[in-house]
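## retry 2 of 3
previous attempt timed out at serialization; input unchanged, resubmitting
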Amino acid sequence: MNKRVVLSSFLGNTLEFYDYTLFGALSFLLAPLFFPSNNPLTSLFASLTVFSMGLIARPLGGLLFGYIGDTQGRKKALVLSMSCMSLASIMIAIVPTYSQIGILAPVVLVCARLLQGISAGGEYNGAAILSLEHQEYHPGLISGILTSSAAAGLLLAAIVGYIFSNPNLPDWAWRIPFLLGLLIGILGLYIRSNLSESPLFQKKITNDEPLPSVLGVFKANRKSMMLIFFIGGQSSLISYLLFISIPILLKFKLSSLSSEFGFICNSISLLAFSLSAVGAGFISRYFRFEKIMITSCCLMPFFFFAFVSLIDILNPSQLLIFHIIFGCLVGMHAGPQHALFQKLFPIHMRYRGISFSFSLGTGVLSALTTHIAFNLGTSPLASICWIGFTSLCSAISLLIIRNSKSLYS
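## retry succeeded, writing output
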């Protein structure tokens, strides 16, 4: 295993996901500052809708950085995506609030969030592609480690968000975590700049084989891209359910619970996500990727239904257990996915094919996370049905891959 490349990708992914999800972790603080309203829920909904815009923008980043990654190198695409993410974080850190510049404040916030989404569209899968192309050693484990980095970034954002949500801090203190994005960006750029380029990509380039256009990639890989759309979209959806929707449900459904306990539940569930992703990647040496991921697809709808139905009568210990199980199911689905996706595309189409289809699935399927969060407390049936539908689509896609020799080798 090329430990240096894997470690560098892990750290880069963690830092970028911190930047990307910090907005969601601080939504309760940002809502009244940029979307003032007599109804706090209206302000929060507007703030979380801006968070969802980052998800919608991800397919554009998948196309842009996917093209750069397939034509100019994986390393260059990752350096550029990190630079864009840092710029967006600085924009959020310095933008005046609504009371200072009026409607321009949320407009700038939306622009920054769109830039973050574009950056994320080329980051997550690109780092996995680069790492997996450096070695053949236990691709499932490497995939699990890189998925774990996303969970680590979510956890870091949750911890920082909790610390800076302290009402005793100055009104401007929320800007500090975003300003840290500048330092994080510098560190991330250093890490990325010192990575070696993918040997498989370099070998392919030396063959002087003409690269297909974007349409050419779509035509040649329609089936693979459709499958990744559903599988990757499901992974993103349940990840943001864990990070966004469930904490909001706890806050409004169980107002008697302390914010400290809610933070503990969220942190432990993300830690379970991180560890189970590595575990699922490790055991993929003994069980095919699809079997592990299908198990999560089958269990997730029933577990989600039980959690939402019983939340009013669960005691704190039971709530904590449910959070741990939820995190483990998310990790089981997301952990081995990168190693599976690698096998569906040839090298010279891989970055574009995976990044765009995964990002499109993320944008379409998980952009409803905000609506799910608010519907869970009032009319959860639609949200439960949506989770059931996406889980079914993901399971069917995994079965198609398992039974198709032309897609899986």
